Amino acid sequence: MKTLKNLFVVLTLLAVAPMTAQTADEILSNYFENTGGEAAWNALEGAKMIGSVNAQGMEIPVEMYQMKDGKQLLKINIQGQEMTQYSFDGDTMWTTNFMTMLPEKSDAETTENMKINNQDFPSPFLNYKEKGYTVEYLGKETKEGTETFKLKLTQKPVMVDGKEEPTVSFHYFETENYVPIVVETTMNMGPAKGQMSTSGYSDYQEVGGLYFPFSISQGGQPIVMKEIILNPEVDAAFFAFPEEK
Amino acid sequence: MKRILLPLLVTLIFSFPGNAQEEISLKGKELFGDMRARQIGPALMSGRINDLESHPTNPRILYAGTAGGGVWRSNDGGAIFAPIFDKHVQSIGVVTLDPTNPDQNIWVGTGETWTRNSVSIGDGLFRSTDGGSNFKEVPGFENSERITSIVINPENNQEIYVGVLGALWADSQDRGVYKTTDGGSSWSKVLYIGPSTGVSDVIMDPENPNILYASMWEFRRSGWGFNSGGSSSALYKSEDAGATWNKIHEGFPEGKLGRIAVAVAPSDASILYAVLETEEKSKNGLWKSTNAGASWEHLNNDFGLVVRPFYFSRIVIDPKNPEVVLKGGLNGSISRDGGKTFKDLGNMHSDIHDFAFHVKDSDVIFSGTDGGVYRSWNGGSTFEIVENLPLSQFYHISVDNKEPYNVYGGLQDNGSWYGPSSSPGGVNARDWNSVGYGDGFRVLKHPTKNIVYSEMQGAENVWRYDVDRNRTKTIQPLPKKGDPELRFNWNAPMAVSQHQPDRFYMASQFLHVSEDMGDNWKIISPDLTTNDKTKQDQSKSGGLSVDNSGAENHTTIFTIAESPLDENIIWVGTDDGNIQITTDAGKSWSNVTDNLTGIPANTWVYHIEASVHSKATAYAVFDGHTMGNMKPYAMKTTDYGKTWTSIISKDIQENAFVRNIQEDYVNEDLLFLGTEMGLYVTINGGKGWSHFTNNMPPVAVHFIDMQKQTNDIVMGTHGRGVIIIDDISPLRELNQEVLAKKVHFFKNKPFTMPEESGFAGSFGAETQFVGQNKSSAARIVYYLKKRHTFGKMTLEIQDMDGNKITSLGPGKSKGINIVNWGFNTSNPKMAAAKTLSFGGFTSPRVPQGQYKVVLKKGKQTYAHIIETKYDRKSLTTLDERKEQEALTQTMFSMVEDLAFLVYEIGQIQSKAKEVIDMGGKPAKQAQKTWDALEALRTDLVVTTGDNYVASAEPELRERMGELYSNIATNYDRVDGSLKSNFELISEEFTTEKTRFAKIMDKQVKKFYKTLNGNDISLPVIKAKEVFLAKD
Predict the structure, then answer these.
(1) Is residue A227 part of a domain?
(2) Residue B166's closest CA among B203, B193, B187, B204?
């Protein structure tokens, strides 16, 4: 009798479900719940991600550091040479010039823009309202052959070539499991301004109770994670611009 | 967990009634996965622009609404454009930015409005509220067909007026001026004249949003004629926000009027200009009012002001100066004296439809033409073309069998061309070759000779072009004594025989055949059309302004299909609805039109495809749009036309009328349908169709061909150039058994490893369109039943013994996944140094042979065997290739040996450094060791400088790396020079290894002794295999 009652409840739910529009917050709350819980995500201070990308047979090691306070760094290793692709210590953003292999500060606009939207780790959706972001559910769409919920994320506007530009991205959560599988970011600078840059997320795996995508692709070859270390001990100086080099 | 449980239950419950036998039916993106089209343009002649819209305050932003290629936006003042409307119908009438929020709110009215014979249709009104990232259809305009105007009150963006021109080939109640006061939720029609009179323009007074002007136009097209003008055409004004409208004709001549262009000066609301088409020739042209339309004065009837009103009714006034007036036309005209006199604008593509002034500098003028967008920086004297708008409008395309194959085709108002399907650096403007003037239509390659047939409108000229000798001959069939007047379609059919290479067909109302490439012609049929005389007088076509361009010639043959299986079987379809077949090479004909059940009488037979699967089988598609019938029609016969079955399913959009069908040469159930709303594909003979939308907008597909060697589907679109889907052979394999599998690898032919290595200067690519090339890599194609999201998934190439060669990024989409492998293995580990050795980036190619593709998904492993082959155009013999491969391996090992040597040196040096830092007696020995090793190291690798001009002189590593890369990437045999260099490097390396051995024996031995004596650990040196291991 109990089973029958449960089945009845499920059937009712199913009958109702398609008619009940999903809200953005429901999708996000399912996402966080399915990937470890909002509390656990909130407790995360940072992550070190060790992976690699394969370029025409060349396996390039990649190390990424992302901290809750916005500090981040991406390092690659070519022929034994470590190169910081970019780093941001909360104040200064810098890159490495490939010709001289020496660090160079990013231009003021780029650095300012980094400061404006620097609370994206571990997810821009986590406490998005407090961050001043807005999220809108735009309906279902088929991405990578599968059904997804489409969410529009609007972050704070940035300055590009002296003009204010919106920061908008579209996140596609697979309806079956509520995790994002595709993110389209509206490019707001350069010749491709206004067009979308698309990233694919897959190979979600559990690390310390949280689910992370272990494969992130942007067009060509994906970055494949080998290891993700939660709350790594990193000295703040690690992200800083090396003044004397 | 709860969330995971629910889908599980859903699956359980829904799988009961259907059982396991339930047919898997994948549609669209679910089926095609990441099988994507590529667009190769061309953009060098671009295509027709319908409307230009500038941003009210930001001069960096400009929009182009195109006739058949969607909406494009420039963010850089018109240097380059990008498409923003690719999910929707591509025929655009008008683009309007909300003046209160122009960055976010974009309105698009679809359906081009310069109503030539070949126009596409629109599909409603759309709005974006997020700067064009997403558009939503605004309900209420589903049947509008063509929207000319969208006007938004700058003081209240909830108040919007929309002008609907409406149906071109039929009556329509949907025409008129519509108004919303709630931002588009509800609409009311505020001006409607009748079912044949639409809105040509609605404009708003720049100072008072309650004042509106609307020009109404009575017009109609049929397959055989055009009428512009009537007693309903008129110019109206409303002073109460559209509630009431009054004609403002004071000064205009009596009688019928045609299309009326109207514009109000942005800087002076009392000044209006109008261009009229009237019954009195002397009163045609430009009229001006200086009292807001209360009365009018006739100013000018020069050619530029009266030419083809249906095509060129657009006036644009300088936003700062009411005396400067631009008028669309054959060349475009400009007046700087308030319309009294005009001069032609500077040279650009002819047929100018719209203009936009720079919002801050009137010297800068943008112009929209039949050949794209042009920019002038000097007030209209000189114009330059925007080079990245691939809007070419093909009527027809064909392909040849070259490698890479060429695509041939003719364009609306832009001649005939051929160009390669792939080219070094991508398909550039300079890759395209002109092979015909005027409007171009069918272009066919001779099957064996380097000869191209092309034509211009109405077969006025048919050219036989000898490409090698650069000689042209006109060969159109001409009437001989006793022949009636020949009626050729505007887009006259041609065909080359697949059985006799020199045989060439053309058709008027008769079928003409030539056995000698067009030198001599024979008529082999009676008049195969209805020969309805009422559809044959085009001399009066045009209405108030005669427009007998030949574009409306009717009762003509439109398609010829010779059976690929039997040269005696020829099918013919006519623009007035007949299908006729001969099975004896034209001796006798049967008219099978009456057997076409479900096709309205006289519906245009747009294409017949004679099947390769059976002589009796053919497909025919019908296009009723010139009778106002937009429904899709495609029929199949398997008995020479005695009976026909419709192969259209409900999946096809109801207004997606069909122009072409292409069958697969292998799988009879695989068909491709070219419609007004894009490409549809069926894998089950038409029971169900899928819209193909991967990198393919729903653009009008006028012709499809299939390249037999590559299995590529090549489409001639009318607005987005040539679009190709590479190798569709995986679609042949799709059946229920395959679709039910978790993973399925599709069969593939052995992959040729191309040995091409030319140059591709990319000058101009910053602002020029460059078409995407076909990948020359191995194309690994598999089907996934489900999108891979959780858990690990890898894809690697292994040799047949299971050793990893390289890893690839797997596709994870549900449906078809395509992964390219460039035949590469892995690159060698390079010795560490101060700078990079670019030679070390080279990964050698695999030898010819069999390889395993191994896909690991969770705990499951799926394998598939592929084969690689050397290029048959290789410059080397097999022995030479093997020698090159062997030497590549030798060098690869040498490079890694050096890497290990340098690693060993480094490990010992760092221990030495450690000891030096400790100080004391052992430090002295450590210093000696460090010095000896450093002297060696600086000869082995670069230790100073940078990667650019401050680079150090190359050391052994750099020279060795260069040699390795040279040998590995050279497709020629290993020549003497490389061999001599190899000897030199080998010897040098041997010498350095001996040097190292000596240091080891001398200084290092002593150093180790010291370490042991002082209880200091020896340096840790990994085993060579461990050091070199790649993970």
Answers:
(1) yes
(2) B193
